[in-house]
Amino acid sequence: MTEPAQGAPPTLEPFGDDFESVLCIVAHPDDIEYGTAAAVAKWTAAGKRVTYFLLTRGEAGIDTMPPDEAAGVREQEERDGAAVVGVSEVDFGTHRDGVVEYGLDLRRDIAREIRRRQPDVVITGDYGDRFVQGMLNQADHRAVGLAAADACADAGNRWIFPELVDEGFAPWHVKRLCFVGTPRPTHFVDVTGYLDLAVGSLEAHAAYNAALPDTFPKPAELVPMILEMGAKAAQVDGVTHALVLDVVNRR
Protein backbone atom coordinates (compact mmCIF):
# COMPACT_ATOMS: atom_id res chain seq x y z
CA MET A 1 0.00 0.00 0.00
CA THR A 2 1.43 3.36 -1.05
CA GLU A 3 1.65 5.99 1.67
CA PRO A 4 -0.61 8.95 0.77
CA ALA A 5 -0.04 12.61 1.27
CA GLN A 6 -1.03 13.80 4.71
CA GLY A 7 -4.82 13.83 5.05
CA ALA A 8 -5.41 11.83 1.84
CA PRO A 9 -6.84 8.28 1.81
CA PRO A 10 -4.31 5.46 1.27
CA THR A 11 -3.63 4.33 -2.28
CA LEU A 12 -4.64 0.68 -2.66
CA GLU A 13 -2.50 -1.76 -4.60
CA PRO A 14 -3.86 -4.20 -7.20
CA PHE A 15 -4.16 -7.71 -5.80
CA GLY A 16 -2.51 -9.26 -8.86
CA ASP A 17 -2.85 -12.77 -10.24
CA ASP A 18 0.36 -14.47 -9.07
CA PHE A 19 -1.39 -17.35 -7.33
CA GLU A 20 -3.13 -20.57 -8.32
CA SER A 21 -5.52 -21.46 -5.50
CA VAL A 22 -7.82 -19.73 -3.02
CA LEU A 23 -9.67 -21.01 0.05
CA CYS A 24 -12.55 -18.87 1.34
CA ILE A 25 -13.22 -19.48 5.05
CA VAL A 26 -16.40 -17.99 6.54
CA ALA A 27 -18.99 -18.64 9.21
CA HIS A 28 -22.27 -18.84 7.25
CA PRO A 29 -23.88 -19.51 3.91
CA ASP A 30 -24.15 -16.13 2.11
CA ASP A 31 -21.08 -14.56 3.78
CA ILE A 32 -19.03 -15.01 0.60
CA GLU A 33 -21.82 -13.67 -1.58
CA TYR A 34 -21.70 -10.11 -0.21
CA GLY A 35 -19.05 -8.99 -2.68
CA THR A 36 -16.33 -11.65 -2.46
CA ALA A 37 -18.13 -13.79 -5.02
CA ALA A 38 -17.34 -11.20 -7.71
CA ALA A 39 -13.62 -11.81 -7.23
CA VAL A 40 -14.26 -15.55 -7.11
CA ALA A 41 -16.01 -15.34 -10.49
CA LYS A 42 -13.04 -13.49 -11.94
CA TRP A 43 -10.56 -15.98 -10.55
CA THR A 44 -12.38 -19.12 -11.65
CA ALA A 45 -12.80 -17.63 -15.14
CA ALA A 46 -9.02 -17.22 -15.20
CA GLY A 47 -8.49 -20.87 -14.23
CA LYS A 48 -7.76 -20.37 -10.54
CA ARG A 49 -8.92 -23.10 -8.15
CA VAL A 50 -11.28 -21.68 -5.54
CA THR A 51 -12.81 -23.71 -2.71
CA TYR A 52 -15.14 -22.78 0.15
CA PHE A 53 -15.13 -23.84 3.80
CA LEU A 54 -18.06 -22.74 5.97
CA LEU A 55 -17.93 -23.44 9.68
CA THR A 56 -21.72 -23.67 10.06
CA ARG A 57 -24.71 -24.44 7.86
CA GLY A 58 -26.47 -21.23 8.81
CA GLU A 59 -29.21 -23.14 10.56
CA ALA A 60 -30.13 -20.27 12.88
CA GLY A 61 -30.44 -17.75 10.08
CA ILE A 62 -34.12 -18.04 9.11
CA ASP A 63 -36.54 -17.05 11.86
CA THR A 64 -39.50 -18.77 10.22
CA MET A 65 -37.73 -22.11 9.62
CA PRO A 66 -36.59 -24.60 12.29
CA PRO A 67 -32.81 -25.10 12.40
CA ASP A 68 -32.92 -28.78 11.38
CA GLU A 69 -34.79 -27.80 8.22
CA ALA A 70 -32.90 -24.57 7.56
CA ALA A 71 -29.51 -26.33 7.67
CA GLY A 72 -30.24 -28.39 4.55
CA VAL A 73 -31.89 -25.51 2.72
CA ARG A 74 -29.06 -23.10 3.37
CA GLU A 75 -26.37 -25.66 2.56
CA GLN A 76 -27.94 -26.26 -0.85
CA GLU A 77 -28.36 -22.53 -1.46
CA GLU A 78 -24.65 -22.07 -0.74
CA ARG A 79 -23.75 -24.80 -3.22
CA ASP A 80 -26.06 -23.22 -5.80
CA GLY A 81 -24.56 -19.76 -5.23
CA ALA A 82 -21.04 -21.15 -5.46
CA ALA A 83 -21.84 -22.85 -8.77
CA VAL A 84 -22.90 -19.50 -10.26
CA VAL A 85 -19.32 -18.23 -9.85
CA GLY A 86 -17.60 -21.44 -10.88
CA VAL A 87 -16.99 -23.14 -7.51
CA SER A 88 -17.86 -26.81 -7.10
CA GLU A 89 -15.93 -27.70 -3.92
CA VAL A 90 -17.92 -26.47 -0.90
CA ASP A 91 -17.39 -28.01 2.53
CA PHE A 92 -19.02 -27.38 5.88
CA GLY A 93 -17.86 -27.68 9.47
CA THR A 94 -19.97 -28.83 12.39
CA HIS A 95 -20.01 -25.69 14.54
CA ARG A 96 -23.38 -24.30 15.64
CA ASP A 97 -24.67 -21.22 13.89
CA GLY A 98 -24.84 -18.21 16.17
CA VAL A 99 -22.68 -19.65 18.95
CA VAL A 100 -19.36 -20.34 17.22
CA GLU A 101 -16.64 -20.13 19.86
CA TYR A 102 -13.08 -19.02 19.24
CA GLY A 103 -10.72 -21.64 20.61
CA LEU A 104 -8.50 -24.61 19.85
CA ASP A 105 -11.27 -26.73 18.29
CA LEU A 106 -12.09 -23.97 15.81
CA ARG A 107 -8.44 -23.32 15.00
CA ARG A 108 -7.81 -27.05 14.51
CA ASP A 109 -10.76 -27.49 12.16
CA ILE A 110 -9.64 -24.57 10.01
CA ALA A 111 -5.97 -25.64 10.06
CA ARG A 112 -7.03 -29.11 8.91
CA GLU A 113 -8.93 -27.65 5.97
CA ILE A 114 -6.01 -25.41 5.02
CA ARG A 115 -3.66 -28.40 5.02
CA ARG A 116 -6.17 -30.44 3.02
CA ARG A 117 -6.82 -27.77 0.37
CA GLN A 118 -3.28 -26.32 0.28
CA PRO A 119 -4.28 -22.82 -0.90
CA ASP A 120 -1.89 -20.07 -1.88
CA VAL A 121 -4.43 -17.51 -0.65
CA VAL A 122 -6.86 -17.61 2.27
CA ILE A 123 -9.81 -15.21 2.27
CA THR A 124 -11.79 -14.66 5.46
CA GLY A 125 -13.79 -11.94 7.19
CA ASP A 126 -12.38 -9.11 9.25
CA TYR A 127 -12.48 -10.00 12.95
CA GLY A 128 -12.80 -6.49 14.30
CA ASP A 129 -15.91 -5.50 16.21
CA ARG A 130 -17.02 -3.09 13.48
CA PHE A 131 -17.50 -3.37 9.71
CA VAL A 132 -16.99 -0.56 7.25
CA GLN A 133 -19.16 2.47 8.12
CA GLY A 134 -19.27 1.44 11.76
CA MET A 135 -21.74 -1.43 11.53
CA LEU A 136 -21.38 -3.98 14.34
CA ASN A 137 -19.68 -7.21 13.30
CA GLN A 138 -21.51 -10.42 14.22
CA ALA A 139 -20.05 -12.79 16.84
CA ASP A 140 -19.54 -15.80 14.53
CA HIS A 141 -17.76 -13.58 11.99
CA ARG A 142 -15.36 -12.33 14.64
CA ALA A 143 -14.59 -15.81 15.96
CA VAL A 144 -14.05 -17.35 12.52
CA GLY A 145 -11.96 -14.45 11.21
CA LEU A 146 -9.60 -14.53 14.18
CA ALA A 147 -9.38 -18.32 14.17
CA ALA A 148 -8.64 -18.34 10.43
CA ALA A 149 -5.82 -15.86 10.95
CA ASP A 150 -4.31 -18.03 13.67
CA ALA A 151 -4.95 -21.25 11.75
CA CYS A 152 -2.80 -20.01 8.87
CA ALA A 153 0.14 -20.13 11.27
CA ASP A 154 -1.07 -23.38 12.83
CA ALA A 155 -1.29 -25.03 9.41
CA GLY A 156 2.39 -24.41 8.77
CA ASN A 157 3.72 -25.71 12.08
CA ARG A 158 3.87 -29.47 12.48
CA TRP A 159 4.15 -29.18 16.26
CA ILE A 160 0.84 -27.35 16.60
CA PHE A 161 -1.98 -29.87 16.37
CA PRO A 162 0.43 -32.78 15.65
CA GLU A 163 -2.60 -35.05 15.43
CA LEU A 164 -3.28 -33.51 12.01
CA VAL A 165 -0.03 -35.04 10.73
CA ASP A 166 -1.20 -38.39 12.12
CA GLU A 167 -4.41 -37.89 10.12
CA GLY A 168 -2.34 -37.47 6.96
CA PHE A 169 -2.32 -33.68 6.68
CA ALA A 170 1.21 -32.38 6.27
CA PRO A 171 2.03 -28.76 7.18
CA TRP A 172 1.14 -26.13 4.58
CA HIS A 173 2.27 -22.52 4.36
CA VAL A 174 -0.28 -19.98 3.16
CA LYS A 175 1.30 -17.19 1.13
CA ARG A 176 -1.38 -14.52 1.55
CA LEU A 177 -4.06 -14.00 4.18
CA CYS A 178 -6.82 -11.60 3.16
CA PHE A 179 -9.63 -9.99 5.13
CA VAL A 180 -12.86 -8.71 3.57
CA GLY A 181 -15.24 -6.24 5.18
CA THR A 182 -12.27 -4.39 6.58
CA PRO A 183 -12.15 -0.68 7.40
CA ARG A 184 -8.41 -0.76 6.63
CA PRO A 185 -7.99 -2.13 3.08
CA THR A 186 -4.58 -2.38 1.46
CA HIS A 187 -5.43 -3.96 -1.92
CA PHE A 188 -8.25 -4.18 -4.43
CA VAL A 189 -9.45 -6.72 -6.97
CA ASP A 190 -10.90 -5.14 -10.11
CA VAL A 191 -14.14 -7.07 -10.64
CA THR A 192 -15.53 -4.86 -13.39
CA GLY A 193 -17.63 -7.10 -15.63
CA TYR A 194 -18.42 -9.66 -12.93
CA LEU A 195 -21.23 -7.83 -11.17
CA ASP A 196 -24.08 -9.88 -12.65
CA LEU A 197 -22.51 -13.16 -11.58
CA ALA A 198 -21.96 -11.81 -8.08
CA VAL A 199 -25.60 -10.70 -7.84
CA GLY A 200 -26.76 -14.07 -9.15
CA SER A 201 -24.66 -15.85 -6.55
CA LEU A 202 -26.43 -13.98 -3.73
CA GLU A 203 -29.84 -14.38 -5.39
CA ALA A 204 -29.33 -18.15 -5.19
CA HIS A 205 -29.95 -17.81 -1.44
CA ALA A 206 -33.66 -17.52 -2.18
CA ALA A 207 -35.14 -18.82 1.09
CA TYR A 208 -32.75 -16.75 3.17
CA ASN A 209 -33.36 -13.57 1.18
CA ALA A 210 -37.12 -14.07 1.30
CA ALA A 211 -37.04 -14.16 5.10
CA LEU A 212 -35.18 -10.85 5.44
CA PRO A 213 -37.13 -7.69 6.29
CA ASP A 214 -38.68 -5.85 3.37
CA THR A 215 -36.45 -2.88 4.17
CA PHE A 216 -33.26 -4.92 3.69
CA PRO A 217 -31.66 -4.17 0.29
CA LYS A 218 -32.19 -6.81 -2.40
CA PRO A 219 -29.11 -8.48 -3.97
CA ALA A 220 -29.37 -6.33 -7.11
CA GLU A 221 -29.10 -3.24 -4.89
CA LEU A 222 -26.71 -4.40 -2.19
CA VAL A 223 -23.96 -6.11 -4.20
CA PRO A 224 -23.47 -3.15 -6.59
CA MET A 225 -23.36 -0.78 -3.62
CA ILE A 226 -20.61 -2.80 -1.93
CA LEU A 227 -18.53 -3.13 -5.08
CA GLU A 228 -19.02 0.48 -6.11
CA MET A 229 -17.72 1.53 -2.69
CA GLY A 230 -14.70 -0.67 -3.39
CA ALA A 231 -14.12 1.00 -6.75
CA LYS A 232 -14.31 4.41 -5.09
CA ALA A 233 -11.63 3.30 -2.62
CA ALA A 234 -9.45 1.92 -5.45
CA GLN A 235 -9.46 5.27 -7.27
CA VAL A 236 -8.45 3.78 -10.62
CA ASP A 237 -9.85 4.99 -13.93
CA GLY A 238 -12.01 2.36 -15.62
CA VAL A 239 -12.59 0.34 -12.45
CA THR A 240 -16.32 0.52 -11.79
CA HIS A 241 -16.54 -2.34 -9.29
CA ALA A 242 -13.89 -3.64 -6.90
CA LEU A 243 -13.46 -5.88 -3.89
CA VAL A 244 -11.17 -4.36 -1.28
CA LEU A 245 -9.01 -6.49 0.99
CA ASP A 246 -6.63 -6.15 3.91
CA VAL A 247 -3.77 -8.37 2.74
CA VAL A 248 -1.07 -9.93 4.92
CA ASN A 249 1.82 -11.39 2.94
CA ARG A 250 3.04 -14.34 4.98
CA ARG A 251 6.19 -15.24 3.05
From TrEMBL:
GO molecular function: hydrolase activity, acting on carbon-nitrogen (but not peptide) bonds, in linear amides
GO biological process, one term: glycoside metabolic process
Keywords, in A-Z order: Zinc
One Pfam family per UniProt: PIG-L
InterPro entries recorded: GlcNAc_PI_deacetylase-related (IPR003737), LmbE-like_dom_sf (IPR024078)
Protein known as: PIG-L family deacetylase
Species of provenance: Knoellia koreensis
